[in-house]
Design goal:
207 residues; alpha/beta; seven-stranded mixed sheet; two-stranded antiparallel ribbon; 7 helices
Length: 207
Amino acid sequence: MTNHLTAIVLAGGKSSRMGRDKALIPIQGVPLLQLVCQIAASCADTVYVVTPWQERYQHLLSPTVQFIREVPLSSETSGESLPHGPLIGFAQALAYVQTDWVLLLACDLPKLRVEVLQEWAAVLDGVEDEAIAALVHHTKGWEPLCGFYRRRCLPSLIQYINQGGRSFQHWLKQHPVQALPLPDPEMLFNCNTQDDLFRFQSPYPLQ
């Protein structure tokens, strides 16, 4: 089993489709970001939260959780801050990681199961050397925001970003990735909209 693991939790999204901050939505009374960080801490020695809004969240989280301030990239021509997705936040946090493997999690996964993450972590030593990540694969491609990456993928990631790339899927297609088994697809359910939240909170499974 891998002895040392770092977790990165991404909490830098604007939650525009939800209409309010997803990270603060209570799940059975616990803010979603707090829930995800508790699960991350059950799997990893170190937990980083990447966000521009540390002041908004730090009172929710254990003092052992470390914040990395997400910094917008500036356009070389206009000097304006460019909007960017999770790939940038991941790259900024990965620079701080000391362990060979890192667990990357989005903050909007209310159905995460710690035992599944721990089972995945236990087999990382068996991942093929050339694979830069171990992720779940589905019909749309890889699931980039709930899985494991090797720290040594950072130079490739920075090169891709410097060339203007912002897509996890496009970047991952350029590298070998090992597939992880997913016993329960609902584990990757994410809350992006009010409809998603209603579906999650409904006592009846939606067809």
